[in-house]
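Summary of Year 1 activities. Much of the first year was spent building the evaluation harness for sequence design. The harness presents a backbone, in tokenized form, and records the residue chosen at every position. We chose the following record to illustrate the format because it has been used consistently in internal testing since the harness was completed.
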């Protein structure tokens, strides 16, 4: 084979094939990079949501042990005391939430106060349900 024929084959066949394959490779690598980034973001979001849920549960449990149970034993757990317990749980939650967790909760749920209120009420209901079973 002479050099001119080899050059023609390379230009006509191999070079376009390499260009097409490199385009597919770049697209594949971009797709994998996007999937990896989404996976990292999902894991980060999941971590902060689980952390925030745990903080709410801890705040509610602590208040039951230190405030609510004592008032209930004394028969003094009034509507005002319930509101005070809620506000204390909310304050504890807000103090313990990291800035990153707050940002993610706001980004996902929109209203941080509403999310906290909902989670506190959910935790209180679960606690009541558990105590009924015991």
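For this record, the design step produced the sequence shown next.
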């Amino acid at each position: 084979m002479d050099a001119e024929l080899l050059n023609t084959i390379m230009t006509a066949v191999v070079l376009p094939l390499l260009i097409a394959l490199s385009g597919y490779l770049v697209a594949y690598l971009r797709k994998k990079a996007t999937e990896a980034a989404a996976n990292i973001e999902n894991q980060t979001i999941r971590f902060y949501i689980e952390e925030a849920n745990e903080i709410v549960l801890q705040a509610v449990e602590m208040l039951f042990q230190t405030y609510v149970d004592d008032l209930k034993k004394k028969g003094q757990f009034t509507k005002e005391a319930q509101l005070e317990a809620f506000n204390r749980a909310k304050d504890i939650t807000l103090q313990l939430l990291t800035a990153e967790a707050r940002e993610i909760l706001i980004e996902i749920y929109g209203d941080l106060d509403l999310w906290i209120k909902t989670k506190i009420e959910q935790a209180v209901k679960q606690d009541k349900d558990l105590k009924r079973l015991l």
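Residues 49 and 99 are 12 Å apart (CA to CA). Quantitative recovery figures across the full test set are reported in Table 2.
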